[in-house]
TrEMBL record:
Residues 44-131 form the Aminoacyl-transfer RNA synthetases class-II family profile domain. This is histidine--tRNA ligase. GO terms for cellular component: cytoplasm. Its EC number is 6.1.1.21.
Amino acid sequence: MPKTKKVQAKKTASKKTRADFFRVADGMADILPKDEAWWREIWRAGFSISECHNFHFIETPVIERLDLFVNGADGVNGDIEKRLFVFSLKKGERVVLRPGGILPILRSYVEHHLGYFSSPLKVFSYGPMFRRHPGVDEVAVSHEWGFQIIGDNDPVYDIQSITVVLDFLKSLKIKNTTLKINTNGCRVCRKSYQEKLKNYYAGAKSDLCSRCARMAEKDIASVFMCKEEGCVAVKECAPIILDYLCQSCNNHLKVLLELIEDNGILYEPDPYLINDFDGFNRMVFSIRSASGIELARGGRYDYLLEAIGGRQIPGVGSLLLAENVIIAMQEQAGLRTRNKPKVFFIAVGDQAKKASVRHMSLLRSNGVVVIEMLGKKSLKTQLKFAEKTKTPITLLLGQKEVFEESLIMRDMETGAQETIVAAEVVDRVKKKFK
Ligand SMILES: [Zn+2]
Ligand SMILES: [Zn+2]
């Protein structure tokens, strides 16, 4: 490169604007303080529901070895490197930002012999999952609450994986959801169905949109989801798995649907809801909001552990999609706001500021919500903030009060104020709010 061009290139490279530096990485997104109340509500409901349904907490790392995901399982198909965030560690080990929660938990299940401690093992997890959407400008991170029941194939656990997310949504006051259910069959019966379906779609190629014509052999689930008129018409005449189920799968489905009906749960059978990955079998479900957003989904995965090199241990699970649930909450549900601050703390002078930290800690550890603006020095400015926040009580601490081990308590509504003994501050504040 001639010298002038080199200089020019260097200049261009350094011409990054502030906007370039302060920009989130492609595919990622911030969760901002303005949305705190929604997230807090999900965490509250999530932990409480998990406890009531007897699920125990498990957390696996955000980074896993790529090997764990190469079998095309856990909701990832096609070119895995294009779909996942893959990179190498220094030792040359290929790792990935986890695209789903089930495989890491199965990995941990085997690694730590969790099946010996409880069978079935019921665990819940919460965290971000990362999936790329090649060519689509879509956020690649989604936060999921997952519930797994590993070690038993009884339909009584299928219904538990459904009720736990239904109760979760109910606790968030999300109404008018639709539960769709189908079965994927098993190794014995699914093959003949898949064969029939393949032949049927091969003969209908000319009626499909160009994308579906390409995808029919690779990803039938996405073809079933296509809204193009021609594709919908082809789908509606396609063979359905219910006509191909073996006796054992038929029984499983029958018992499950009886359990669902006995529990008064409304559902819609959906023969086009399938999970086509080899590790998944039998029950599959999806829950959508009134406006059609998918809020939760789940299914049985009796072959998944085997698919990644383990023994055949049955499992069933469900997950709740936090970002989508927040959209549904914003659309319809009332929002519980965070606890309102009760006390505004004002300190004037260095010694008072120091002492105020101890007072605030004591109040907070006793469950009192305290706010302050201690970075501002003058009493006037701090008082102005206190008035703005509409906190019912203000506690004032100056040099004199520190020396006398007292505080001034001011009722912001009436303006009345009194001096109280510092040691009694928690009791006095709590009494005010009884
Ligand atoms: Zn079967
Ligand atoms: Zn189509």
